[in-house]
Structure formats: structure tokens, C-alpha cells
Design a protein that fits this description.
The protein has about 130 residues and is mainly beta. Helices cover about 0% and strands about 50% of the residues. The protein contains no helices and eleven strands. Strands 2, 4, 5, 6, 9, 10 and 11 form a seven-stranded mixed β-sheet that branches. It has a four-stranded antiparallel β-sheet with strand order 1-3-8-7, with no helix packed on it. The N and C termini lie far apart (about 40 Å).
Length: about 130
Amino acid sequence: QVQLVESGGGLVQAGGSLRLSCVASGRTFSRYSMGWFRQSSGKEREFVATIRWIRGTTDYADSVKGRFTISRDSAKNTMYLQMDGLKPEDTAVYYCAADRLLFRDFGLSREESEYDSWGQGTQVTVSS
């Protein structure tokens, strides 16, 4: 069982930056990828970004591409989401998630159903 704990959320003005962290713990952590999702009030949870744990390849939602950067520190079992150029529409609870598989034939996934461990979420609020 993998436990995930996010941190780094908060209140920031439009155009500002935040960095989210997600620490994985539990039995030896080894998953194909980890990802960030977010859920705004009244909306379904949506994909933000994902990173292949070993090789570091990444994928981003179009809405955040060029503004957000996902990274990881394997030695610390920690994933990050650097968020720059924040907009009010980025306001949401941000969740980190761990891939349910060790290996994938077809690369990174944006589907919630492919992630089976979730953190508790951290609130990001961007004021205009």
C-alpha cells in the first residue's frame, strides 16, 4: 500500500507561483508513473500532469502546458508540481496519484482509473 501526502497549496494572486510536493511512503515505492489531478468546485476531477518515474518523461494537459512543470526526486520518493503564471481558473484542490502498474506498453496515462493511490489533496486558490 502506498501512502501519498501533498503539501504546498495556498492562496496566491494571479500571475504568481506555487510549488506542490507529494511524498510517497509505505512499502518499497515502485510505480510506472505518478500524476497530478485537480478538482474545482462543482466540476469533475481532471488530469493536470504525469511523469514516468524512472525515465522522467512527462505529459501535460493543454490548459497548463507551458506554465506548470512536473518533476520528481526518486531518492526522496517525492514528486513536485511547479506552477507559474497562475490564473483564477487554476483554483482547485490538487491531488497526487500513483500509477496502479509497474510497467505500461503504451506509455503515460491521463485516466483516473489508471491510478490507484491518492493523496488527501491540497487547496490552491488564485485570486484575480
